[in-house]
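Example for tutorial group B:
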């Protein structure tokens, strides 16, 4: 007997978060290409085949496998009113056992930046992670000078935890990142003193 897996979809006020599909290729490629200058300072160097159909197909298959395996959930952000692809947010490196944690990463198209979409998407992913997935901790990292990303994290309940030297290669160089985390039962700064 075949079992049908329910398609993972999170709804917010203005968008749906869902796994990428092969039909997203043209929208994804267009958005990435038009946002290249906007994204370049904050991302790893794109591979020469980054915008090809073959690379996108590999991305879609990876998303399906990772989601089924429970190791990552790569969401595309789709605007409800017109179906426009806004960007992506991925809950990655999902770890079970005593850790019960994951890492979140995201990007948004240049024309959709600073309109609250990423805060909305991040809130939905955090609710899903702490609720349905029963995770305890979500980590994020960004460049110290990425004020927009730091603001999104801080407004979304993430707290600054420190610095990681030479953390990731961004725009062709090993870069130091600031580290943030959101805890399901955040006790930082609280006491039980009566």
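The residue assignment follows.
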């Amino acid at each position: 007997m075949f079992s049908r897996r329910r398609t993972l979809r999170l709804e917010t006020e203005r968008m749906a978060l869902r796994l990428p599909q092969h039909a997203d290729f043209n929208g994804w490629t267009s958005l990435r290409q038009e946002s290249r200058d906007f994204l370049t300072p904050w991302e790893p160097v794109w591979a020469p085949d980054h915008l090809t159909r073959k690379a996108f197909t590999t991305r879609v298959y990876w998303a399906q496998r990772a989601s089924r395996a429970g190791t990552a959930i790569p969401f595309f952000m789709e605007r409800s009113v017109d179906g426009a692809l806004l960007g992506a947010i991925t809950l990655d490196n999902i770890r079970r056992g005593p850790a019960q944690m994951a890492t979140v990463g995201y990007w948004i198209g240049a024309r959709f930046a600073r309109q609250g979409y990423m805060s909305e998407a991040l809130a939905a992913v955090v609710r899903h992670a702490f609720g349905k997935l029963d995770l305890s901790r979500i980590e994020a990292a960004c460049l110290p000078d990425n004020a927009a990303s730091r603001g999104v994290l801080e407004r979304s309940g993430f707290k600054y935890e420190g610095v990681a030297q030479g953390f990731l290669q961004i725009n062709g160089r090993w870069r130091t990142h600031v580290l943030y985390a959101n805890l399901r039962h955040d006790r930082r700064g609280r006491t039980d003193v009566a």
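Confidence is low (pLDDT under 50) at residues 190-194. Compare this with the pattern of hydrophobic and polar residues in the output above.
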